[in-house]
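Duplicate of #3305? Posting structure anyway:
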């Protein structure tokens, strides 16, 4: 079985295995799992974090894409009878199927090359998730927690903050990994709001407005949103149309989206 432990990190899977025991323990302390939790770990790798999580919470499901790692993990944690491992791409995985009786707590060292689409995929299950703790590129964590006017503030900031409370926890240096990545990393905690601070009447429209606005982030709202609402009088916007998208907070984007939703309803209900 020793050959299982000679797995070489694969660049196509974005693998960088965490080997710093102090950082591993610090991550698990931040998660603070209990015996009654329902844990899901994305990309367990060689099981460095998995081992400490299982010692505190025996009910853990791991989602791993690299099939060569699965025998390693099955052997390493063979004494944990509630440990499950699923070979699947996390981007296509239905996390909701594990949250039938209690909310999930999701943990993961997310592959940096798919972190943004994976975060948006996970947000679709927010109603079935208690919290999420992720290792991400520090630049992504900065974007998640950025405030209006900050150069890191953008689409990811607005949409994740709309759904979740974001807490950047601590940085992780490159030397904590094998092989060492060329970027700084950080741990972030995302806690879905039990009650949304600001409610968008049409979340899909909110996503479209935010997406289009930040595709032209250096333009004013007037010019950035013109392709989306060519016939709309931008001077009637509930926010100043001469502002740039990066200066608007979550609440203002929601207010703008709700304004446009109401206009669409009025337009559709107008008698012929």
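Output from current build:
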């Amino acid at each position: 079985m020793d050959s299982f432990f000679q797995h070489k990190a694969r660049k196509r899977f974005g693998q960088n295995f965490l080997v710093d025991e102090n950082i591993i323990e610090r991550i698990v302390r931040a998660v603070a799992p209990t015996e009654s939790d329902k844990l899901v770990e994305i990309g367990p790798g060689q099981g460095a974090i998995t081992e400490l999580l299982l010692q505190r919470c025996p009910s853990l499901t791991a989602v791993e894409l690299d099939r060569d790692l699965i025998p390693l993990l099955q052997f390493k944690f063979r004494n944990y009878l509630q440990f499950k491992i699923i070979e699947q791409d996390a981007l296509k995985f239905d996390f909701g199927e594990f949250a039938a009786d209690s909310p999930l707590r999701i943990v993961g060292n997310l592959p940096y090359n798919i972190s943004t689409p994976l975060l948006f995929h996970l947000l679709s299950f927010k109603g079935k998730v208690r919290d999420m703790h992720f290792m991400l590129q520090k630049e992504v964590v900065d974007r998640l927690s950025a405030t209006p006017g900050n150069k890191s503030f953008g689409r990811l900031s607005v949409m994740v903050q709309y759904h979740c409370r974001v807490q950047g926890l601590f940085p992780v240096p490159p030397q904590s990994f094998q092989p060492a990545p060329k970027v700084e990393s950080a741990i972030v905690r995302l806690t879905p709001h039990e009650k949304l601070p600001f409610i968008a009447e049409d979340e899909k429209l909110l996503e479209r407005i935010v997406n289009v606005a930040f595709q032209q982030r250096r333009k004013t709202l007037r010019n950035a949103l013109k392709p989306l609402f060519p016939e709309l009088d931008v001077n009637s916007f509930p926010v100043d149309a001469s502002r740039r998208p990066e200066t608007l907070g979550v609440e203002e984007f929601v207010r703008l989206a709700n304004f446009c939703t109401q206009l669409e309803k009025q337009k559709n209900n107008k008698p012929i």
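Confirmed duplicate; merging threads. Confidence is low (pLDDT under 50) at residues 1-7, 9-14. The domain at 2-192 is CATH 3.40.50.150 (Rossmann fold).
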